[in-house]
């Protein structure tokens, strides 16, 4: 998606999330699986060359209110979902639970990513960062960050054949086709190649003389432990969110969740490891957001300059206050009754600027300190 917005808005202080909020997924925003043995079995009563619109409709029918299951295919395949309210970070507690179809020695783990709807337009835009929830293997030496893989559509299209792949580690291989499988490349996707990026976990499959085991990781991954296991096994804390450099993000809330298959492995006659998702449950849908962030009542182009470490507002008179926030909404600087503020102590990066005038009109804009 290429929808770039100039202005970012933040949440009202003490925003109340009412009890009627649904604890479950309210909509599937994007469904983009990697090749897999069950991917083109979505529409058993329809032509297998179905449309992206019907694939998304299918995913919504399955995941909204935890009504069914979607498969994500091999490494990187993902689903992105939203809710009818933000999920609040209750510090130190488990905030949501991901449902799958894992069982003992039948884990197909998925990485869980989270995102905030900073501009409140209802979709995760390209300039709204995703954060990984760092599970138990995040720092394992065999975990590969920024892994990238490309799958290639077979020729002729639709044949029951293996799917070739290459990656950014200099490796290549194929997702093997088994006799009972249908075509594995998602036929409703028009592109002849599919590229996915993300964290890849180490392979764990064990071959016990033709009987394959898929042991679970300790914690922090979707479709990793059974749904009836204790919350310590299949629960998630927003506290675990880290940015692209591995730094804790300290998010007060999230609006979107994305899950992608985290392993690139096959288990003989069982086929490729493919994360399945059957739902997500907010564990405290009636929680209240306690944040220093402020709701935007008006957005406008602010004419600003940064010189010698000072940020100056040029086109608004009678300024009551200037506030600078991190891109995650954490307060950093507050200045009253002047048109400039000292930002020399801030490292280079992207920030949110909030300006309030004497009439209590509020203006918020993103700016870059270089």
Question: What would your notes on this structure say?
Answer:
The chain has 370 residues and is mostly beta strands. It has two domains: 27-282; 304-369, Immunoglobulin-like. The chain is 4% helix and 34% strand. It is built from two helices and 24 strands. It has helices at 52-63, 231-234; strands at 27-32, 70-71, 78-88, 96-99, 110-115, 130-133, 144-152, 163-167, 172-175, 193-200, 206-208, 211-213, 235-236, 241-242, 253-261, 276-277, 279-282, 304-307, 310-313, 319-326, 331-336, 340-342, 349-357, 362-369. The chain has a six-stranded antiparallel sheet. A four-stranded antiparallel sheet has the order 9-8-7-10, with no helix packed on it. The chain is elongated and about 75 Å long.
Task: Briefly say what this structure is.
With 370 residues, this protein is mostly beta strands. Helix content is 4%, strand content 34%. The chain folds into two domains: 27-282; 304-369, Immunoglobulin-like.
Primary descriptors:
6-stranded antiparallel beta sheet; 370 residues; 2 domains; Immunoglobulin-like; single chain; 4-stranded antiparallel beta sheet
Q: Give the termini distance in whole angstroms.
A: 26 Å
Helix-strand topology string: EHEEEEEEEEEEEHEEEEEEEEEEEE
Secondary-structure class: mainly beta
Low-confidence stretches: 1-19, 291-300
Task: Give a topology summary.
Elements: E1 27-32, H1 52-63, E2 70-71, E3 78-88, E4 96-99, E5 110-115, E6 130-133, E7 144-152, E8 163-167, E9 172-175, E10 193-200, E11 206-208, E12 211-213, H2 231-234, E13 235-236, E14 241-242, E15 253-261, E16 276-277, E17 279-282, E18 304-307, E19 310-313, E20 319-326, E21 331-336, E22 340-342, E23 349-357, E24 362-369
């Amino acid at each position: 998606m290429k929808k770039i917005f100039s202005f970012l808005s933040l949440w009202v202080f003490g925003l109340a999330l009412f009890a009627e909020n649904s604890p479950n997924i309210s909509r599937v925003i994007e469904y983009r699986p990697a090749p897999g043995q069950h991917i083109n079995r979505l529409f058993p009563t329809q032509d297998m060359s179905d449309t992206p619109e019907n694939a998304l409709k299918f995913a919504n029918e399955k995941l909204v209110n935890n009504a069914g299951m979607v498969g994500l295919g091999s490494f990187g395949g993902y689903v992105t979902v939203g809710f009818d309210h933000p999920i609040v970070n209750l510090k130190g507690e488990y905030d949501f639970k991901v449902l799958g179809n894992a069982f003992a020695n039948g884990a197909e783990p998925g990485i869980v990513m989270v995102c905030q709807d900073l501009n409140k337009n209802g979709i995760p835009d390209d300039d709204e960062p995703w954060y990984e929830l760092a599970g138990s293997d995040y720092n394992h030496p065999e975990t590969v960050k920024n892994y990238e893989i490309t799958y290639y559509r077979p020729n002729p299209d639709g044949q029951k054949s293996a799917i070739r792949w290459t990656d950014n580690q200099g490796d290549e291989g194929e997702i093997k086709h088994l006799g009972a499988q249908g075509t594995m490349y998602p036929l409703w996707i028009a592109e002849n190649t599919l590229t996915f990026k993300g964290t890849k976990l180490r392979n764990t499959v064990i071959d016990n003389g033709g009987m394959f085991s898929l042991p679970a990781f300790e914690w922090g991954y979707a479709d990793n432990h059974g749904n009836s296991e204790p919350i310590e096994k299949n629960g998630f804390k927003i506290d675990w969110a880290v940015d692209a450099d591995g730094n804790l993000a300290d998010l007060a809330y999230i609006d979107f969740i994305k899950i992608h298959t985290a392993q690139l492995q096959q288990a003989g006659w069982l086929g490729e490891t493919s994360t399945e998702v059957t739902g997500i449950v907010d564990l405290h849908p009636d929680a209240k957001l306690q944040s220093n962030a402020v709701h935007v009542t008006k957005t406008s182009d602010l004419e600003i300059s940064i010189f010698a470490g000072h940020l100056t507002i040029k086109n608004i008179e009678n300024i009551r206050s200037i506030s600078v926030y991190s891109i995650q909404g954490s307060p950093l600087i507050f200045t009253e009754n002047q048109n400039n503020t000292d930002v020399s102590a801030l490292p280079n990066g992207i920030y949110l600027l909030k300006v309030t005038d004497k009439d209590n009109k509020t203006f918020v804009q993103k700016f870059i300190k270089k």
